[in-house]
Specification:
The protein is α/β, with parallel strands linked by helices and 242 residues long. 25% of the residues lie in helices and 21% in strands. The protein has helices at 6-19, 26-43, 63-75, 84-98; strands spanning 101-102, 107-108, 113-114, 120-122, 127-128, 133-135, 140-142, 147-148, 153-155, 157-159, 173-175, 178-180, 185-186, 191-192, 197-198, 203-204, 209-210, 218-221, 226-230. The chain has a seven-stranded mixed sheet. It has a five-stranded parallel sheet with strand order 1-4-7-12-15, with no helix packed on it.
Amino acid sequence: MSDPTEAEVLERLDRSIDDGSFVGGGDGFMTEAAALVERFLETGKYSAAEDPFGGRDAELAPGEHAYYLMVWRMFDRTPAAMMQDFAIKVRRLLAPKVFKNVGEEVIFHQDVNILSGTNTTLGSGVFVNHGSTIDDRGPITIGDHTMIAAGAILTTHGHILDDFSQPLPFGGRTMAPIAIGSNSVIGFRSVVMPGVTIGDRVIVASNSVVTKDIPDRWVVGGAPAKKIKELVPRDQLEDGDR
């Protein structure tokens, strides 16, 4: 069936699941879903889902911006995204249209979960590894040459927990910004919580949860993250300490 609407596709899917005809007939659904994608790519028309939890997600996906972000997400699910050098250059070209501000020579690997991009400012040389999450319902700023390791999560929102008049998921969200300085590392599968400011040349160890601000040059780790040591420039160390 040519040019189906989203409502028509959903109605037919619901009916086929209900009457059992979907098993062995899923190719029809996949064909229609592909037609929806093709129409989006041809027209740019896109309806962002309303966020039932009060996160204003639809507001974070304005017209043209939504197109670039959706193409980024779609590209990441194609075999071409595994051609690393090519794919990094594709994302680098798209980045100025996806993020609020972006410096030069940024590097994004595959499957980075970007909520919106419109609230994120990136310095030059920022490196974001695969499987990480940039949840920028609130503002996120990342300084020059900072590295976000695989699986790391930057989240700027929480949930209102003390409104007993509502089911907990529907009580609404709270927002707070994240700021990360330059030449820092957010380690493998670490989480940076809302409202945290991280200084320059900070190392967050793998699997840490950062709940408080971190000064320049600290190495931290744990859940919650605590100071392990302070980084000292190599030229200030004694030979035996290097």
